[in-house]
Design brief:
The protein is an all-beta fold. Helix content is 3%, strand content 49%. A hairpin with a 2-residue loop joins strand 3 and strand 4.
Length: 488
């Protein structure tokens, strides 16, 4: 496969910081993706190398900006349906703000046989500072032959919508913010909650046959300890279960088969390290997704939150990691920079879209995209090889801050494939450390724990005697020390 363009440097595209390459999808010989914030949809004929681009001007006048920052794409027959949001035209103000009067949520369709793009549906509230819910996920309902749209990021028209893929008529099914969804058996599960205020609050499940909805709670943690702010990044299904990848871990289960949802702590650092603005795909019967180090961030400290938002979003605990889920195994298969934005499988290869910069906040807009974005092509054999060496480093003040929120257990480090894993604690006082050991068993098992005496100064704990995943908790708060986790 030859990509004419596989690197995208900063270019005109007014929005908040950096967007990325989203929606990677290979279907019927065509590779599709959208480059945000430039608002460019790319369609590549993989055999010939011919490439078409579309600037979203079916929605309004140029210059357009935006695109898709949640991987809203689905395929049916010869069609590629792609959604998101667009400014048409974009209006950038000199006070580092974007006006949203021309911001549209949308679904387009690309016909791979005709090579044509059509606008299927659009929505806007034409407000200067608020916008209609962006399309953050698209699911195909095979029974109703319709598209189900998830919408969470916005101020109006949030929830799950049914979209007729022939007429473009949309109908609201529920009005609670829903970032992502996935099909399991004959049910569509959607995560419910606002990612920027609370995270995943509950699951709503739509029976595709009867049309009835049911509600389920996320469940308790396998390690028995509390967890906080499970912002929802991606969802997928396998083993007849729904998997919701959230900040701090993964929630898995299926109440319809008698198994409630449970939380498995995974890469929980009490920062905004999360599987956010990335998708999850099925490969080899398992699930491949990424946990990102720097996807959204506060650019300038704000006195209103005493810098807490700046610290939690700008503390880089480790590299972004590509993770393969094949229960009970969780395996790191790749390490990358600031963030992975999209993942796809194509002709024995795995395509990884990456970005060097995060999204920023409402008063931190720029007239151009600030990130360097590229597409990395990997061989599928990475799933079977030994994992890469990875290190994580974290100020222990962050878990202490989380303790005030009713939590404080951190980690959730997958050890599969590593021969010499260890953790190093640098402490200001003597303390007691509890290590919880568990795996991603289906149905969920319970963690076992072991407690160690740790002293002021440097403490090295060999983790090679543990298996599966491990999380950590100090008995007393530690506000000056740090922890470094080394996987070799």
């Amino acid at each position: 496969m030859l990509l004419r363009n596989y690197r995208f440097s900063p270019r005109y595209g007014p929005e908040w910081g950096s967007g990325g390459i989203f929606g990677l999808r290979y279907h019927s010989g065509t590779l599709y993706f959208t480059v945000a914030f430039e608002a460019e949809a790319h369609f590549i004929d993989v055999k010939s190398g011919d490439e078409k681009t579309y600037d979203f001007t079916l929605l309004g006048d140029a210059p357009t900006s935006g695109g898709d920052t949640y991987n809203a794409v689905e395929t049916v027959d010869e069609f590629i349906y792609f959604g998101g949001w667009i400014h048409a035209p974009a209006i950038y103000r000199e006070d580092r703000r974007i006006l949203f009067k021309n911001k549209y949520s949308h679904v387009h369709v690309y016909d791979t046989e005709e090579g044509s793009v059509k606008l299927l549906w659009k929505d806007s509230i034409h407000h200067a500072t608020e916008w209609a819910g962006e399309v953050s996920d698209i699911l195909y309902d095979p029974y109703g032959d319709r598209l189900l749209l998830a919408r969470e990021d916005g101020h109006a028209n949030l929830g799950v919508y049914s979209l007729d893929r022939r007429t473009g008529k949309a109908e609201a099914l529920i009005n609670e913010p829903a970032p992502k969804g996935t099909l399991v058996h004959d049910v569509a599960f959607f995560g419910i909650g606002n990612n920027f205020t609370e995270g995943l609050r509950e699951f709503r499940a739509l029976d595709l046959i009867s049309g009835k909805w049911e509600t389920f709670k996320p469940g308790e943690s396998v390690d028995g300890r509390p967890y906080t702010r499970p912002e929802l990044g991606a969802m997928a299904s396998a083993y007849n279960r729904a998997f919701a990848f959230v900040r701090g871990g993964v929630i898995a289960g299926n109440p319809f088969m008698g198994e409630g949802f449970r939380f498995y702590r995974l890469f929980d650092f009490y920062t905004f390290y999360a599987p956010f603005r990335v998708n999850a795909i099925n490969v080899g019967g398992g699930i491949l997704t990424a946990f990102n180090a720097h996807h959204d961030a506060v650019y300038r400290p704000d006195s209103e939150d005493n810098g807490i938002g700046w610290v939690t979003t700008n503390t880089v605990a480790g590299p972004s990691v590509l993770v393969y889920i094949a229960p009970p195994m969780v395996k790191i298969v790749g390490a990358f920079g600031a963030r992975v934005t999209s993942i796809e499988k194509m002709e024995g290869k795995i395509l990884i879209a990456t970005n060097s910069a995060p999204n920023t906040g409402a008063k931190e807009a720029t007239p151009f995209d600030t990130g360097n974005r590229d597409i990395v092509v990997l061989d599928e054999k990475i799933l079977q090889e030994r994992p890469p060496s990875v290190s994580f480093s974290l100020p222990l003040a962050l878990p202490s801050m989380a303790r005030a929120m009713g939590a404080g257990t951190f980690g959730g480090i997958p050890l599969d494939g590593y021969r010499e894993p260890r953790v190093v604690f640098y402490l200001s006082n003597d303390n007691r450390l509890t290590v919880y050991e568990y795996d991603l068993s289906l149905p969920a098992g319970e963690a076992v724990s072991e407690t160690f005496e740790v002293k002021a100064g440097k403490n090295i704990l060999d983790l090679s005697s543990f298996s599966g995943m491990v999380s950590f908790e100090l008995e007393k708060p530690e506000t000056k020390g740090k922890v470094r986790i080394e996987l070799r």
